[in-house]
Structures are given as C-alpha cells and as structure tokens.
Amino acid sequence: MGAEIELAEDEAASVFSARRVRARLASDSNPVTAFRATLAWGRERLVGLFHDGAPADALVHARAHLMDEVLQQAWRRFLGERTGQMLALIAVGGYGRGELLPHSDIDLLVLHEPSALPAHQAALEQFFAFLWDIGLEVGSGVRTVAQCAELAAADITVITNLLESRLLAGEASLYTQLQERLSPAHLWPVDAFFRAKLEEQRRRHAKYDNTGYRLEPNVKEGPGGLRDIHTVAWVAKRHFGAQTLTELRDRGFLTKQECDELFAGQDFLWRVRFALHMLTGRHEDRLLFDHQIKVAELFGYVDSDHNKAVEQFMQLYYRTIKSLSCLNDLLLQLFEEAILGKGERAAVTPLNARFQLRGNYIEAVADDVFQKQPAALIEIFALMQTNPQIAGVRAATLRLIRRDRRLIERWREDVRTRSRFIGLFQHDDGLTTALRRMNRYGVLGRYLPEFGRIIGHMQYDLFHTLTVDEHSLYVVRNLRRLRMPRFRSELPFYSEIMARIPRPDLLYVAGLYHDLAKGRGGDHSELGAQDAQRFCLDHGLSHADAELVGWLVRHHLLMSLTAQRQDIADPEVVAAFARRVGDRQKLDYLLLLTVADIRATNPALWNAWRDSLLRELYHGAARALERGLDNPVSEAERVAELQRAALAQLGGRLDESAAQKVWRRFDNDYFLRHTPTELAWHLPAIAGAAQNELPLVLADTLDGRGTVFVYTRDRDHLFGLSTGVLARLGLNILDARINTTADGYVLDSYVVTESDGRPIEHAHRYAEIREALRKVLADPKITVVDVNRRRPTQLKHFDTPTTVHFSHDTARGRTVMELVTGDQPGLLSMIGRVFHEQGVLLDAAKIGTIGERAEDVFYLTDRDHRPITDEARLDALREELVRRLSGDEATPRNET
Questions:
Q1: Distance CA 224, CA 204 (A)
Q2: Residues near 499 by beta carbon (within 8 Å), at least 6 away in sequence
Q3: pLDDT value of position 888
Q4: Which of 824, 649, 848, 646 is nearest to 751 (CA)?
Q5: Mind listing the pLDDT tens digit for each residue in 629-682?
Q6: At how many degrees (to 10) do helices 376-386 and 415-427 cross?
Q7: What is the DSSP letter of 682?
Q8: Are strands 166-170 and 87-91 parallel, antiparallel or unpaired?
Q9: Which of 740, 770, 739 has the alpha carbon at shortest distance from 752?
Q10: DSSP symbols for 47-68
C-alpha cells in the first residue's frame, strides 16, 4: 500500500473507530434500529466534518471505513462462522477502492464455491433483506470464481470493477483465487486492457461532446472529471501493479508536481461531489444550475463587484478539469509509449537545432531546450502548424512544456517570440489547432495574460454555453472555416465575403480578443479594444492595422444589436448604422466577426431568421455606403423597388394594376418590413380572399424561416390571441411585424420555430398552425387563450427582474418600449393582454430571447395611432407590466 492509502486509513479510523461503531451497532435490542441509527450518526458526522473543512479524501475513506464495519457486522449476524471455506464478501468498484460519497453506489460481490450456495441461500437472502431494511441500496452479485472470470473476459467494465476489490469478510483463499484468475497472464493482457480503456474513455468523452466546459458538467464522467483520474489509476494498476498514484511517483513515472496536481484535483472534485450528494440527498454527479449556486456558497464564495460567487466557483472548477485533462493526456501517452512501445523504433528526423520528429510526433532534442530558449515554447506550436503531418507532442516533451511554461511570461517582449506568435495568425492554416493546443497545455494564458484571466470564466446564464476562453477560440475556428474551401458549402454567402477581405489575420486577432476583457468591470468592448490595439502594435502590426482590429473589438456587438433590437425596416436606422461603420471594408469585416461570434455563443442561436436579419442590414448598409451617406435612399424609392421585385417573383400571375389595387391600401411600413418573397406570398392570397373567408392565415417556410401571416379585420387583443395560440402550440416567436391599414385591416407576420429552436419541418405542422389560428381569430367570443405549457426547469433557477424603459421615435410617430424580463411560455400573449387593457396599440415588435432572459422591443401608439407622450400613462403601463410579469400573475394560469 502507498503512503497516502495508509494515511487515509488512519484518518478514516480516527473518524469512525471500530470500537465506537461496533458499540453503536449493538446499542439497541432491535438491530434494524441500531444499524439505521449508526448510519444516520455517520452521515451527520461526515456533514459536520465537511463544513469544518476536513479534506475530501478523509471524508470518502471514512465513509467507506464506516460501511466496512456495518457490512462486516451484518455478515457475522447472518452468516457467522458457518461458512467454513465456502463464501466471501467482496467490495468492488469505487467501494472496492475504499472511496464512498454520501450516496455512492455500494457494490458487493458474494464469491462462493460451486457447491456452497444451496446451503447458504436463505442466510444470504436474509443478509441482503437486512441491508435493505437499514436503508442501504446495494448492487450485488453472487458468483463463483469461474463465473467472474468468464464475465470479466467478455467485458472491460467487469474486469475493471473486479480489479478494484477488497475482501470484507469470509474466506481469503477464495479472494486469492479470484485475483489469480484476473491476472494479465489469464485475462486482458496489459496492451489489450490499455487499448480497451483508451477506447472506453474516447466514447465517454464523446458523450459530453469532448469538452468538460458544459453549462451543467458531470463531475465524475465528463472530460477532466474523476473518471479520467480513475482511468490513469486502472492502467497503472494493470501495468505496474501500482495500487496508488504515490507508487507511480516513487517509481519515477510521475513527477512530484504531477502527483500533487492529481491529488489536488481529485480532492477538489471529491469535495464538489460530496457537496452535491449532501445537498440533493441522492447520488448526483451533475453540477446543475440550481446546485452551482448552493455549492459555491458551501465553498465560501461571495459575489464581488464584477463576478458572481457562482462564476468564481465555476471558474475554479473549469480550470481544475482543464489541468486534469492535460495530465490525463500526458500520462496516457506515457503509458502508450511504455506499454505499446509507441515511437521506440520510429525514424528520427531533425527539424532544427531544438526539435526533431520521432515518427510523426515532435520532441525536444534535450531536456533543457525551453530553459535555455523560452521562445521555443511558442516555436514548437509554430512548427506543428507549418508541418501538418505532425500528429502531436511526445509525452516527455509535453512534460517539459508543463514544467517550463511559466518561463514564457518573462519572454513576452522578446522580438523572436512575438514574431513567432503573430506568425501563427499570418500562416492561416492550422491556426485553430495551434491555439487550442497552446491553451490545453497552459502556454497561451501565460503568454497572453489577458487570455489567462478569462480561462474557465463562465457567465451564469443560459445564453452563453461556453466559457470565455472556449468561446473565443470557437470564434477563431468559425472564422477559419469561412476561409477553408471544404467548408464553403456551410455558409456560402459569408465564405464569399471572407474570400475577398484583404487581411484575414486581423479578423482572427479581433476574434480572439473580442471578449477577453469580460469579468474586469467596465465596458468589456472598450477595454478589449485597448488590449487588442496594444497587442497589434507590440507584435509589429501597423497603426492602421491596430486601429481596424481595435475598432472591430470595440464594435463587435454593433451589428447584432442593430439587427435584433432596432427596426431595420426604417431607412434612418440603416443609414445611422452605415454612418457608424464608415466604409464597405469595415462592413465586411464586422459582418464576418458578428456571424462567427453568434455561432460560437450558443448552438441554438444561429438560425435562418438571424441570418436574414444580418443579410438585410448588410445589404441595406452596403447600398447606403455605395450611394453616399449624404444621399440616402428615400422610403418611396425603396418601396417601389420592393414592389417591382415582388411582381417579378410572381412571374405575371398577377398584373401590376391588380397588385396596386391591393397595395394602395397599405402604408410604406408594410412594404419596408417584408421581403419581396413575403410580399409575393401575401399578394395573391389577399387579392383572392373574400370577406367571408377571413381571417386569412398563411403558414410556410420562407427563406428558410418558419413564417406565419394573418390578414383579417382588426379586433381587440388580436396580438395577444395570436401569440397565445402560437405559444399553446409549443412554438417560439422570434419576430413580430404588426401593420394596420387605414380601413381597419391587420397584416401581422410572425417568425416561429419549434420550442427547442429547431425549424418547422413538416407540412402537417403548418396545417395545425393555420387551423388553430383560424379557429380562435374567427370567434369573437374568445378573448383569452390559455397557455398551459410548463416553464422549463432550467428557467426556474434564474431570477431576472422586470425592467421597462420608454423612448420616442419622433420621426415615425411611435413610442419605443424596451422590456427585459424572465422568459416563460405565453409571455407575449400576457404582454398583449396588458397592452389591450391599457388602450395601447402595437405597431411592431422585435423579439429577443437570450437564454433565460427575454429582451423585447415594442413600438407603440395610442388608439389614435399617435405616440404616447403622457408620462403618467407610461408609468401606469410600466407598473402594470412589472406587476404582471414579476408577481403571481407571471405564472401561466387557466383562465376562462
């Protein structure tokens, strides 16, 4: 046994001494009562020790020690000394390792001679029934040595469980036989075992998308979690016979630093798991949102000015699993070289005075390469970038990188170091892989301190699905894909723009830097722009290049906010955006950065609707810049252009005079808010609709977007009814365009998706939408639509205060209302009901759901179609919205 196991056993015994536990187990004439009370006492004692700050390894070993005493006493009670040499009770799996969390699985194996079972069947049944009675849920198997060997030979998980075993009670000779039958000489030779564990880890990591940086990570099974440490230990035990990580250190296979990191990481993750079990009262290994806040509090974190307590805790969690993932890489590669002899006979090819290839892996030619020339810490990644045949770094060299990586901090100002680093961006190919490797091996954050600060930094919301460092690297990756011919079919429009920009390297730098100032306080865009400009100048770029990169970082949110929060059908909005951009080249750069950023923020965020919004704004701004900012396109010109395009799409199915007969009833806003495709879709249907056929409802996929159009006579609460029907059907509303004609008809359009963000795919779904809307809107007796969808569980963990802000769009005679509140099913229907009750008409809406937050913009008038200027009336509207959305009425209810 290694020193740490002996220490752990001593600590466990001091927490639960055998004498004290046995006395408690015998303290009541009713054994069930005594055993239950002992287990309850043990749980309370461990919880108290946790709160007192006891090391996690002491807690998990102490619980296993307590369980040993309980099970051994129970075994003696029912099987006593009657078994001779026939039965043995074995702890397997995590319990076999001597590691138990408060609600960990208790896995037991009853090993028996072939002839022993009938004589002891009844006693064993009583034993397991007793365990159930005292509140233990055990996983058990009753097998012979031969049966164990047969199962182990067929299944890597079985052999792994049996390797981690301990004799608890019964005949030691049986256990010795089992260990002999499981040895590499009989089952699973070391090389086969190693390959199987590697494949097992690969499959496990794939289940978590090969990242431990999930919003709700699994502490045990996710990449970088406890199971990665177990994998190293299993292989070490099979190959070296090492029982502990300390033994690997003593044999020189692990360095002291690596061993200390593994122990520290394991202790932290154990403590997190202990907290999860304690808080939930069950076996729970997932750090779900509601658990994260409570665990952060248990760990002593408090909110700071710039970062919430939960964000500070999760940053430590993510940094821990990043470190453990790197160690897992290193150690498994060392095992691969030691067990499989990988690279031993491979040809050696010199690359330069510092590095060589052994097979297709790069290695340092000497142990002091990085100490003598710290710039080589950047050079090695540059060599891998320019030599794509290099598969990776040899384990010994990876160990040197980890040992010496801190030295790069003193070489940030070295000209050669800076030249090699900026060269990564200018070489283009392999940039993403180079940056990811540098981050994984702890070099990138040491070379760029601004990057180092945000490693593992998460934002506690449902909008950002990655930590800031992972998100930033994904943005660079998305930009690179736009540049690569094999991905051109993915986003052909944006790839075409990417192909014509003169300096993609500047765009990559902006992508890396755009969010690096988060968590510091202040405007992260402004602070990040300063950092980015300084980086450019330090790395030999011109002032003009630095200014462009700084401008992109400073304004990286401008295009998405304009497209999603403002009325881009308004030529003045487009002209104002174009003036801020200034020229076509900046517009191209900004569009590409915006697309890459959105696609890297949340997989569900990019859709056909956002694509169309960005394209519409891009084309409108491009036209404004080409025409000249002093000579903007007039509304009349734009309307005429849209009408001509719509008629061209109809291909003569409706002549211009018939079209104008319909269109003359509609104001300019209707045309400006719709694409030619939509106008061509609406026109024949409206022209052919008789009065008794209203409401007219169209629903189909247009330009890749699920689109719903309603044409009917205006009526009270139409918006609330329509959105209520759509919500009841389980649809998300992404956009609403509301138009009312002078003769009292409405032309309302909605962009919708399924509740999980997927596009609507089937014709029968559109038929369902049309039928449901017609049924409700055609019945004047229906004034309220019930929305009974449950609020998603994740939304319950976030408390978003409702805020309402008013401003005035004097040019278009409207009042603008910006609303931020917690998202919930039926939200728009509820808001529409308030508008109706307050005598407010809705002119247009921009709907933006950002994770758990709804950030919507509504354009309002009074019933006479004038802006609402009465402050008292606006205050009353604000108060009613806050009351409804923040109080009990914010919960969907059954209404008549």
A1: 11
A2: 483
A3: 46
A4: 848
A5: 877 778 888 899 999 999 999 988 888 999 999 999 998 889 988 999 999 999
A6: 20
A7: H
A8: antiparallel
A9: 770
A10: HHHHHTT--HHHHHHHHHHHHH
pTM: 0.85
Answer yes or no: are the C-beta atoms of 114 and 148 closer than 8 Å: no
Specify burial of residue 762 (Cβ count, 10 A radius: 0-12, 13-18, 19+): exposed
Q: Which residue has the tokens 């109809």?
A: 650
Q: What is the pLDDT of residue 865?
A: 85
**Residue 108 and residue 89 in contact, taking contact as beta carbons nearer than 8 Å:** yes
Strand bridging mode 849-850 / 355-358: unpaired
- Which two three-digit tokens encode residue 10? 């001593």
Inter-CA distances, 116 with 78, 126, 635, 766, Å: 15, 16, 94, 67
Q: How far is CA 530 from the centre of its chain?
A: 29
CA distance 357 to 343: 10
Residue carrying the six token digits 């402004």: 526
Provide the H-helix boundaries in 104-169: 117-133, 145-154, 156-163
Q: How would you label 339-368 residue by residue, b for 16+ Cβ within 10 Å and e otherwise? A: beebbeeeeeeebeebbbbbbebbbbeeee
CA 109 distance to own-chain centroid:
39
CA distances from 734 to 31, 119, 548 (A): 63, 70, 33
207 and 122 Cβ atoms separated by less than 8 Å = no
What would the pLDDT profile of 41-73 be if each residue is shown by its tens digit? 999 999 999 999 999 999 999 999 999 999 999
Half-sphere exposure at residue 64, Cβ-oriented, CA atoms within 13 angstroms: 29
Q: Quick count: other Cβ atoms within 10 Å of Cβ 413?
A: 8
Helix/strand/coil percentages in the chain, nearest 5: 55, 10, 30
Q: Is the dihedral of CA 863, 867, 872, 874 positive or negative?
A: positive
- Residues 6+ positions from 374 with CB-CB distance below 8 Å: 404, 407, 408, 410, 411, 414, 417
Strand runs labelled E in 589-723: 696-702, 705-713
**CA of 450: how far to CAs of 4, 455, 461, 518, in Å?**
38, 9, 23, 10
pLDDT reading at 891 higher than 60 = no
Q: Is residue 245 a contact partner of residue 263, using CB atoms and an 8 Å limit?
A: yes
- Which residue type does 452 have? G
The pLDDT tens digits of the residues spanning 857-872 come to 888 888 888 999 999 9
- Rounded average pLDDT over 403-415: 93
| DSSP three-state, residue 797 | helix
Q: Is there a cis peptide before residue 571, judged by omega within 30 degrees of 0?
A: no
